[in-house]
Automatic annotation (TrEMBL):
Cross-referenced CDD domains: PGAP4-like_fungal
Keyword Membrane listed: yes
Annotated protein name in UniProt: Integral membrane protein-like protein
Keywords, in A-Z order: Membrane, Transmembrane, Transmembrane helix
GO CC term, one of those recorded: Golgi membrane
Superkingdom assignment: Eukaryota
GO terms of biological process kind: GPI anchor biosynthetic process
PANTHER family on file: POST-GPI ATTACHMENT TO PROTEINS FACTOR 4, TRANSMEMBRANE PROTEIN 246
InterPro entries, A to Z: PGAP4
Segments traversing the membrane: 245-266, 278-299
Example of a GO MF term: glycosyltransferase activity
Amino acid sequence: MHFSLSRLTVGFAVFVAFSFFYAINSISARDPTSVFFNPRKGYAPRYSAVRRQQAGAFISAYDPATVVKAGDEKKRKLCVGIPSYNREAAQYLPDAVGSLLDGLTPEERQEIYLIVFIPHSKPEVHPAYREHWLSGLADEVLIYGYGIDRMQYIRDMEQKRKFDEKSLFDYSYLLDRCTELFTPYIAILEDDAIAMDGWYHRTIAAIHEAEQQAALRRAKPDFLYLRLFYTEEFLGWNAEDWKHYLFNSIYVAIVPTLVIFFMRFAQPTKKLSLVLMTRRIFIAMYAMLAVFILTYFALGRITVLPLPVGVHEMSQFGCCSQAFVFPNTKARELVIYFKERHVGYMDVLTEDFADERGELRYAVTPSLFQHVGKRSSKGDDYGKMSKWGMSVAEKIWSFGFEKFDWRALKKEHEEVTKMRHQGQQTSASG
């Protein structure tokens, strides 16, 4: 058998070139952790554009005669709260509410208590406050219910633009209101986040999965939150894990050496074994191995090691605060903690709370919500964290969300609804 180093090298080079071309133009182009990431493709609103159209059509077709709202307390499973600020030149609330409600079955809608919170000392400044669709679709339009002294404190925060204090105050206010309804779980969503079709049945299934995983870990179904949105941007080859990456690379590099020495000592007289031990072959093998390792890391972590579909722990690098689900009991504890801390951003303080108490944190993959805001409610946010001509807000993006297909989601939702009805009929007959 003739062993040709040149043919092996050329073949490997062709393979690497083809892999690079495929990575650049397909998978890794949409992986923010890859060196081949293409922001034009990665941030393209594929499914979210469709979903926003569906949400807009739902709001436009608002008819008070056909509206279904939350059922009695026994039927409610989830309090959904949305704080909505008046944003300059951009309003996202109609898309947020429309995407939440579009496609829900009457039974699903009755299990949700929807609160839209207008956190302004003068709620009239919000363009949706006096629109009929808002009060008609939401179960409650929440505004401040304080006296003169407390309202003056709120006005002072607004005038002095104390975003880190005001936003925490508002989040606590809304979270506290949801706890009063005694629903088992509470979802707090930002008003520039849109929901996928079928978000509710996937959320309920994810809650049950998180409970089971927590029970296996801690002998009780106790966790702090379930994250329904995260951006993959911070889930790459993080510097904190460099030792792990180095050791794995060394282990891979050792394999050819072990193979060569095994062949040499097992069959020292074989021609192939002698050829493999030549210096040129040895160097070529390790050169190709180095290229392979570099290519592996260059492709990006989301490409080569994607997070599994379903529920998994995410105690680090989870961002941001667009969509959380809290158990009611944990929400009560968080409200107390936020009031004690008084100043800070909700997502940061929630992680502080979790770290201090060793709480379990879960996320569902792929994300069930997408962040579509281009401007922060805190004002224009171009700064050191922005790049590619995009604001910081625009970069808060779920890349996995855009892979959804609206036809497949509609079919999935129909099948889940059918199975639910069959289960109810079986229970009733039994």
